[in-house]
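> run fold Glycoside hydrolase family 15
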Amino acid sequence: MPRDIPVGNGSLLVTFDREYQIRDLFYPYVGKENHTIGHPSRMGVWVDGQFSWLGGEWQKTLRYKEDTLVTDVKARNDRLKIELQMYDTVDFHLNIFVKEIIVRNLEGRDREIRLFFNHDFHIYENEIGDTAFYDPDTRAIVHYKSQRYFLINCCDPNKCGIDHFATGIKEVHGAEGTWKDAEDGVLSGNSIAQGSVDSTLGINIQVTAYSENIAHYWIAVGKKYDEVVKLNKVIWEKTPEELIRRTENYWKLWVNKETFNFFDIPQRLVSFFKRSLLVIRTQIDNEGAIIAANDSDIVQFGRDTYSYMWPRDGALVAYALVKSGYMDASKRFFQFCADVISKDGYLLHKYNPDRSFASSWHPWLKDEKKSLPIQEDGIALVVWSLWNHYDEFRDIEFIKPLYRSLILSAAEFMVKFRDEETGLPLSSYDLWEERYGVHTFTVSAVIAGLRAAAAFARAFGEHEYGDKYRDTADKMTDALIACFYHKEEGRFARMGTRTATGYELDMTVDASLFGLTAFDVFRPEVPMIVSTMNAVKERLRIKTTVGGIARYTNDYYHRVSNDIEQVPGNPWFICTLWLAEYEIMRAKNLTELNHTLPLLEWVVDKALPSGVLAEQVDPYTGAPLSVSPLTWSHAAFVTTLMQYMKKREKLIVCPECGNSEFYMHRHVQKP
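> ok
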């Protein structure tokens, strides 16, 4: 089930499912630890002796307030004649999740309406040894274990503190939890429970006929009891309204810090560009990890999650942030990579946000020989993305300590990790994490990484290194053509498996072949690239009303259809956006450039109403598949729209002054 409206501040992340249940709560890192591990925390309403959890009988719309990380949720129940308007956010500075609830009475008489909130914590990602208790000093419920505390409280316009509460056992001896206790509108008042526990609290709201009233609910999160009590006091003193207001203003300021000239780009694309930047930020930990996705439902597929930092994903997301003017988050990511790079210059498969090595299915032993469990494209793209960061911001003091520890270390590894005979990289795992061999995408990334390292070396005056990396990249480019371009097919192979005499080529059409031009290995108009990308466009197009581009022919991951001719695989957002980027690169005039806009419109059309992008969609229904949001999907949209604006800037130049008539940025044009 997709995570529709994530809210966070880089240390605390809260996600909701489409039923508006809290499903994930990450602290103290984005991506680690998930203190619900996907178990739902519910909200319900009691009125006139009737009860309803916010489930299927409620008509709901889940969106965000424009240009913010404050939700805008409407829920209506015609049976209860109740309408709720809710705003959720995580304070931009303090680890407090806060919700405002406007309760509208659709009846022509005064009514008491009770709001109930259930909490199904699994602190430290397990249910063993949790405690939940009612705290009379704060009139709140507190859940804790060891150094993790969650204080949950409410207020209305007249008072602060909860009116009903119950703590109890769950998931043991058939116990369902205290949420069942709420359904008669009255809670037991049990004040403490230990072990596998949950809690439910309630607040009474008086609402006159055809009128509305307001309540607030919050979760203060910390490592000590005194810390959450202090946060609770801050809320009382500042008021929940103020925390929401200041957080709304902060995110508006953040997402509009760069004043781009969007000109006549459709407003829905501009709004989605900003939404993508905001969603990306929810998936980035303040300590530098750019997390692939935080959607615990994927556990059902392989008993693992996407809540990790993959170097490749992180590098491409950092690139999108760099190109759109966001320096700080990308700097922390590059520092993260410098901290975890091995002494031999490679980055491992993936990392936890606390910098520890994450779970992996890449072996250290293959064919009875030691094998590095790496995806070399990730190592290379970190260096490539870092060069783009430097080129954009010229932040030399930041780059200086990374020059030897990260840049040269990775470059030396890439030089050594090559086939002595062909000059191509040695075998590693592909970007889809499915195949072991030498991959065209990986080779392209390594060429780009070596060229970036060469540029750094020359900038630092170490021309010997610069020449070595540039020469290695040039020879690798020649070898890529010689070994991976299939003359009879007239296109590049997606990968090769080393044999005694060369490479056995895999000619499966794969969208990742865009890497040949995405990283400037070849110009997009080169005939070899044109024919390769034409194959991608023709053979990977989804021939249903949904449309889009698949990853590769006969893709098995979350497969919906076996009709490979019509549906070579599910449409992926990144693959569709790669095609858009390629068409933008090839555009020779404004008319050709504008022909790429429908692909961007397709992405917006297939997003959730909140603006969240999944990894892929169902080829027949357009429903989200796999995780959502996928950070890379949003980064790809940001990158593609930036490429569109940059290309338009280059196409329309004033003949008198030499400046672009569509200059995209507020700053003075670079010479």
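Residues 362 and 434 are 10 Å apart (CA to CA).
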